[in-house]
Amino acid sequence: MVGFSCGAWVHPYSEASAPGVIIGCHALCERPRLQTPVRIRKMRLKIVLVGERTVGKTSLVERYVKNHFKEEYTGTLGGRVYPVELEVGLEGEDLALAQVAFFDLMGEHSVRKVFAEPFFFGTHGVLAVCDVERPATLYALKDWLRVVMQIAGPVPAGIAFNKVDRADKMAIGPEETAWLRAEFPTVPTFMTSARTGAGVEDAFSTIVSRTVDSVLAGGRKSRSGRLLRQRMLMLLVDRAGASKNELFADFKGVAPGEIMEELDNLVRLGAIVLDETGAATFAKAADLPATVRYRVTDRGKRIAESPKGEELAIEEIV
Ligand SMILES: Nc1nc2c(ncn2[C@@H]2O[C@H](COP(=O)(O)OP(=O)(O)OP(=O)(O)O)[C@@H](O)[C@H]2O)c(=O)[nH]1
Ligand SMILES: [Mg+2]
């Protein structure tokens, strides 16, 4: 794992240009002067904000990238991307130069259903937001995080309890805290107010740091294999099975060899079987006709529905 030795954060709203397009933030970096040349690790990160309507997702990202807050509510239509360039101090004198795209999605379940795949595919980190006045918005995060992780894999997550400026109306008590501990024991939480700015910097810098950490530690290749496997499994669940041909058509950008390799992995995992026989006899996808169909087993369905990131990391079971 890579640690973070200095809080070398560059406030993204220092050089705001067009609304929602914030690029080039080098001015406020407070790193001590460097004695030796640094190794710069460049990366592009996608971090999504999720949660129910009106919890304050847009307000939080606007506060973070533009230091701006609006009292009136104008719900997000679909989604919006906020690109930000950040420098993050790494172990030693290394520096991560991260182009981060914050994806702010409208908190509407029907939109989530339709746009989950394009919105969440390739996500490296997630900030889930709830409203301290409405405990139901906290409980709803289980589903939001499940959907993100089914598509993106077990990426780093954080939970923001927003609107803490309205402490008099706070409705989060011991029951909610106990639920949170049981469901998300390792997910960091933040008390935020987009209105006052309290906790916002901490929430965003922590989630970005963890995301940078995980991307550097993970290595892209193994992750992309796992992601493809998960996406293929989800598609097979949705369609109640599919043929090799259909999968080639659905994953056009992916080499057929990779698809067949992941089909074999899913069969080895017991997540799918050949539709015709349903038997456990193993035949390599490459040796089978393209029209042969695969269907999902009960075990495969359980893996696909699992809300926990670890269970989705099916790579570890192979
Ligand atoms: N008091 C207070 N109000 C807030 C805070 N954050 C957001 N609001 C208000 O809550 C309302 C909803 O905020 P949004 O940021 O639009 O919520 P959202 O989660 O993006 O909503 P959707 O786009 O519909 O999913 C607005 O009227 C905001 O001004 C906060 O920290 N404190
Ligand atoms: Mg919004």
Topology:
Elements: E1 40-50, H1 57-66, E2 79-89, E3 95-105, H2 109-120, E4 125-131, H3 135-139, H4 141-152, E5 157-162, H5 174-183, E6 189-191, H6 200-218, H7 220-239, E7 242-243, H8 244-250, H9 256-269, E8 272-274, E9 293-296, H10 298-305, H11 309-312
Helix pairs in contact: 7-9
The structure holds guanosine-5'-triphosphate (GTP) and magnesium ion.
List the keywords.
318 residues; alpha/beta; Rossmann fold; Arc Repressor Mutant, subunit A; six-stranded mixed sheet; three-stranded antiparallel sheet; globular; disordered N terminus; disordered C terminus; binds guanosine-5'-triphosphate; binds magnesium ion
Short synopsis of the structure:
It is built from eleven helices and nine strands. The chain has 318 residues and is an alpha/beta fold.
Question: What does this protein structure show overall?
Answer:
With 318 residues, the protein is α/β, with parallel strands linked by helices. The chain folds into 2 domains: 2-217, 3-Layer(aba) Sandwich (Rossmann fold); 240-312, Orthogonal Bundle (Arc Repressor Mutant, subunit A). The protein contains 11 helices and 9 strands. It has helices at 57-66, 109-120, 135-139, 141-152, 174-183, 200-218, 220-239, 244-250, 256-269, 298-305, 309-312, and strands at residues 40-50, 79-89, 95-105, 125-131, 157-162, 189-191, 242-243, 272-274, 293-296. The strands form 2 sheets. A 6-stranded mixed beta sheet has the order 2-3-1-4-5-6, sandwiched between helices. A 3-stranded antiparallel beta sheet has the order 7-9-8. A hairpin with a 5-residue loop joins strand 2 (79-89) and strand 3 (95-105). It is globular, with a radius of gyration of 21 Å. The model is unreliable at 1-10, 14-37 and 308-318 (pLDDT under 50).
